[in-house]
């Protein structure tokens, strides 16, 4: 991951970060912090980059909150003036004021990878809203629950194929294969592993291109992302065209997958052509690619490190397992019962999640802190908030919990590198991908 990739990601990645650009309006009141000068640009960018490499990006925020303001400070990243809103009030402000006091800004790479007719930022903001409406409509819980049994059986097959046959596995690459295959299957009924691997490669290039330097020359990350985007959109358009024909000729079920659901729901998609739909599906595949596999990897890491947490997750999942007949699949009701397991979620959004004022002893992995309803509003925001809250949350929740249900009942595991470092580039990941030793549990958990 290149230096500029990291910084670009920072600018648009999570909801804590919003960017307002001071388009020459020197009279407006600016928050405290470093002003823009060549020296400041170099120092701020380098510091953020190296703290990420060291696995402590939160220090960048904490230091500036201490030095400038615990509410909002300004800094400069990628040649842009950036205001960083902090704490629960900062989150509340961001989530409540989009399109009023704040506008989302996208890096110029986006317009080349996700081309639309107009290149104006306003047009992209409009597309962003459409994406959220589109994704929320496809990924609503009522639809997802009808595919839960498919998720469950695919996850079981994945464990049979890649985990049961090995004593040692590396979690991150396997989690990526699993979550992307689930997406391809549930969204598009694509099952062929080699084709899925090819699509995954292209999606990876797109994700890397969005957060790369805006340089479109042969072989540059942006150039490769543009080519990958063209490839994916062409494939998806052909698939959508064929699916429309198959639905019209009643050759396939209208509930076959999320694509069919989408195509028959004309009230939402009526005005969208095939290119639009292909582009939105591609965005969903990109948005849903990294986060669930990263979350699964960190869950595996913490469960290996904390046997008491593993024990509680196992107990919860065994209870659910006991209530089911042999071979009976999980239901949406079962997912709702997995309360403790859902609290075992991965920890980011530094100015609140790592802030002892909101969460005492924040470095300690303690899922019990999320029991009940006692945290400060706007402090815990793993899926963002406001109008741009993650539309994939229920889908991600289902796939992560179904995975946990299956994995803890089959295995215990230990880390092969107890001190494996975490690096943020900018998504956190164990540097070796979390290799683990599996120990099969002796019970009928399949
Ligand atoms: C653990 C898993 C996940 C986490 C933690 C997560 C988190 C987030 C966050 C924080 C945002 C808001 C970003 C912003 O404000 O700019 C977001 C947006 C989004 N997420 Fe997720 N996400 C996850 C899984 C997924 C999955 C599985 C999908 C799709 C299947 C998905 C689809 C999207 C889309 C389409 C957006 C853009 C919404 C918009 O721009 O309005 N996410 N996600």
Uncertain ranges:
1-26
Rg, nearest Å: 22 Å
- Can you identify the CATH superfamily of the largest domain? Cytochrome P450
Shape: globular
Quote the beta fraction: 5-15%
Largest sheet: 3 strands, antiparallel
| Annotated CATH topology of the largest domain | Cytochrome p450
Kindly state the mean pLDDT as a whole number?
Answer: 84
What is the oligomeric state here? Answer: single chain
The strand count comes to 8
- Broad CATH class of the largest domain: Mainly Alpha
Describe the strand arrangement of the main beta sheet, using strand numbers. Answer: 1-3-2
Number of helices: 20
Count of discrete domains = 3
Structural class: mainly alpha
* CATH architecture call of the largest domain: Orthogonal Bundle
Ligand inventory reads: protoporphyrin IX containing FE
Element-by-element helix/strand order? HEHHEEHHHHHEHHHHHHHHHHHHEEEE
User: Which bin fits the share of residues in helices?
Assistant: 55-70%
Task: Provide structural commentary.
Keywords: Heme, Iron, Metal-binding, Monooxygenase, Oxidoreductase, Signal. Its cofactor is heme. This is Cytochrome P450. Helices cover 55% and strands 8% of the residues. With 446 residues, the protein is mainly alpha-helical. The protein folds into three domains: 100 residues, no CATH class; 141 residues, no CATH class; 151 residues, Cytochrome p450 (Orthogonal Bundle), CATH 1.10.630. The chain has a three-stranded antiparallel beta sheet. Strand 6 and strand 7 form a beta hairpin. Helix 8 runs antiparallel to helix 9. It is globular, with a radius of gyration of 22 Å. The N terminus is likely disordered.
């Amino acid at each position: 991951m290149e230096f500029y990739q990291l910084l670009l990601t920072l600018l648009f990645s999570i909801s804590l970060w919003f960017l307002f650009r001071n388009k020459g309006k020197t009279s407006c009141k600016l928050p405290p912090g470093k002003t823009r000068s060549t020296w400041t640009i170099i120092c701020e960018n380098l510091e953020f980059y190296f703290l990420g490499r060291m696995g402590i990006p939160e220090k960048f925020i904490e230091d500036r909150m201490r030095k400038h303001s615990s509410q909002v400070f300004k800094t400069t990243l990628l040649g842009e003036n950036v205001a960083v809103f902090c704490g629960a009030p900062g989150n509340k402000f961001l989530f409540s004021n989009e399109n009023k006091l704040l506008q989302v800004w996208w890096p110029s790479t986006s317009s080349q990878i996700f081309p639309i007719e107009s290149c104006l930022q306003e047009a992209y903001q409009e597309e962003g809203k459409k994406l959220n409406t589109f994704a929320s409509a496809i990924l609503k819980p009522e639809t997802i629950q009808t595919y839960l049994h498919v998720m469950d059986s695919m996850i079981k097959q994945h464990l049979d194929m890649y985990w049961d046959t090995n004593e040692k596995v590396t979690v991150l690459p396997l989690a990526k294969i699993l979550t992307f295959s689930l997406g391809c299957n549930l969204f598009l009924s694509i099952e062929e592993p080699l084709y899925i691997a090819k699509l995954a490669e292209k999606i990876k290039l797109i994700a890397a291109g969005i957060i790369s330097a805006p340089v479109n020359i042969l072989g540059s990350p942006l150039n490769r992302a543009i080519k990958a985007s063209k490839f994916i959109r062409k494939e998806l358009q052909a698939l959508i065209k064929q699916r429309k024909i198959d639905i019209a000729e009643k050759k396939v079920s209208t509930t076959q997958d999320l694509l069919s659901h989408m195509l028959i729901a004309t009230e939402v998609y009526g005005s969208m052509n095939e290119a639009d739909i292909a582009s939105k599906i591609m965005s969903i595949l990109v948005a849903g690619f990294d986060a669930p596999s990263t979350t699964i990897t960190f869950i595996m890491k913490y469960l290996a490190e904390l046997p008491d947490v593993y024990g509680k997750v196992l107990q919860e999942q065994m209870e659910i397992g006991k209530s089911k007949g042999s071979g009976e699949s999980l239901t949406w009701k079962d997912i709702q019962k997995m309360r403790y397991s859902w609290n075992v979620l991965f920890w980011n959004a530094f100015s609140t999640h790592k802030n002892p004022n909101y969460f005492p002893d924040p470095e300690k992995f303690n899922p019990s802190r999320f029991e009940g309803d006692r945290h400060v509003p706007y402090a815990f925001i793993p899926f963002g908030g406001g109008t741009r809250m993650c539309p994939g949350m229920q889908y991600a929740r289902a796939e992560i919990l179904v995975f946990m249900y299956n994995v803890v009942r089959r295995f215990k595991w230990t880390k092969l590198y107890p001190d494996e470092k975490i690096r943020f580039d900018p998504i956190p990941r164990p540097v070796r991908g979390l290799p683990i030793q599996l120990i099969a549990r002796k019970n009928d958990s399949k």
